[in-house]
Amino acid sequence: MLSFVSKRVLGAIPTLFAILTIAFFMIRLAPGGPFSSERAVPPEIQANLDRVYHLDQPLMLQYWHYLEGVLVGDFGPSFSYKNSSVTELIWGGFPASMQLGFTAVFLAILIGSALGTLAALRQNRTTDYAVMAGAMTGITIPNFVMAPLLTLVFGVYLRVLPAGGWGDGYQIQYKILPIVALALPQIAYVARLTRGSMIEVLRSNYIRTARAKGLSEWLTITRHAARAALLPVVSYLGPASAGVITGSVVIEKIFSIPGIGRYFIQGALNRDYTLVMGVVIFYAVLIIAFNLIVDVLYGVLDPKLSHR
C-alpha cells in the first residue's frame, strides 16, 4: 500500500506541473491586465507597478520566478487585495470552503446511498419511480439555477433561512441553503449509482445464499450487499469532489460566502494573475488528493484488489 501511495504521489508531480504551466500562460493571454481600469493610469505609475510586480520582465522569466516561489509554498502577492499574499487569502477562505464542500459530499453519500438502496429494494414500484424522478430532476437542474430558487423560496418568500451571507461562521442557518444547493446534484448521482449497483448485487449468488441461511433482510443488506454496492459510489467520489469544488465557486459567489471560490471569481474579473494561479493550483492539489483517497478506499472495500 505504501508503495502504491508513493507512486501516485510521484505521478501527480508532472500533472501539477502541467496544470501550473498551462494556467500561467492562459491567464496572460486574456485581454487586459491586473492594473487595467476605466481610468487610465499615468505611464510612469504603470511602469513602477510593472517593475514592483516583475511584469516588465520577459514572460519566460516571470514564469521561472513564479515557479521558484511555488516550490517553496509562496504564491506571491495579490494584485487586487493590497497588503495580502495569495497564501494568506487561500488559507483565510479555506475553512468556509471546507465546511461547505465536505458537508455537501457527506450528505450526498449518506442521503444518496440511502435513497438508492431504498429504490433498489422497491424496484419498479412507486418508491423507485419517485426516487429516480427526483434524481433526474437533481441532475438536470444545475446548482447555479437551484441556488437562486432556494434563496427565493426559503429566503425571500418564506423567510425561514438567510438568503445569503455566512454570519460569524458558526451559525448553522447560514449554511443550510448553500450546502443543500451544492449537495443536490451529487445526491442525485449517488442515488442512481447505488440503485443500479444494489440491484445487481442483490441478484448475486452469495446474497441468495445468505437469504437461504435465514439471515434477516437488514443484515443481508448491511453486512453483505452494501459493501459491494458502494464500490461504484466510491469510484465516483473522485469526480464528485471535482464537481463539488467547481460548484462551490459559483455557490460561494451567489450566497456571498467568504471562501476560496469568491476570491477566484474576483481574481479572474480583476486579472489578478497570482490569485487565480494560487487557487487553481490549490484546487488541483485537492482533487489529486481526493482521487488518491478514493483509490485507497476502493482497495479497502474490495480485498481482491491489490495495489502494486
Structure description:
The protein is mainly α and 308 residues long. 75% of the residues lie in helices and 0% in strands. The protein is built from 12 helices and no strands. It has helices at residues 2-29, 43-52, 59-71, 86-121, 126-140, 143-157, 173-202, 205-212, 217-229, 231-254, 260-269, 273-301. The model has no long low-confidence stretch (mean pLDDT 83).
Main features:
75% helix; mainly alpha; MetI-like fold; 12 helices; single chain; 308 residues
Query: Stretches where pLDDT falls below 50 for ≥5 residues?
Result: none
Strand content: under 5%
C-alpha geometry: globular
Mean pLDDT: 83
Report the strand count.
Answer: 0
CATH architecture of the largest domain: Orthogonal Bundle
What's the SSE pattern?
HHHHHHHHHHHH
Helices, by number, come to 12
Give the % helix. Answer: over 70%
What Rg is obtained from the alpha carbons, in whole angstroms?
Answer: 24 Å
CATH class category of the largest domain: Mainly Alpha
Major sheet attributes: none
Oligomer: single chain
Question: Domains counted in the coordinates: how many?
Answer: 2
Give the name of the CATH superfamily of the largest domain.
MetI-like
Give a short synopsis of this structure:
The chain has helices at 2-29, 43-52, 59-71, 86-121, 126-140, 143-157, 173-202, 205-212, 217-229, 231-254, 260-269, 273-301. With 308 residues, it is mostly helical.
